[in-house]
Amino acid sequence: MSNFQYHRPTSLSEAFRIHGDVPDARFVAGGTDVLSHVRDRSLRPPALISLRRVRELDGIRVTADGATNIGGLTRVADLTSHAALAARLPALVQAARRLGSVQIRNVATVGGNLCNASPCADLAPPLLVYDARVRIEGPRAARELPLEEFFVGNRMTRLDPTEVLVAVVIDAPHAGTVSRFDKIVRVRMDIALTSSAVLLRVESGRIAHAGIAMGSVGPRPMRLRGVESFLVGRAADETTAREAGVIASAEVTPIDDVRATAAYRRHAAAVLVERAVRDLAGGAA
Question: Is 107 helix (H, G, I), strand (E, B) or coil?
Answer without folding.
Answer: coil
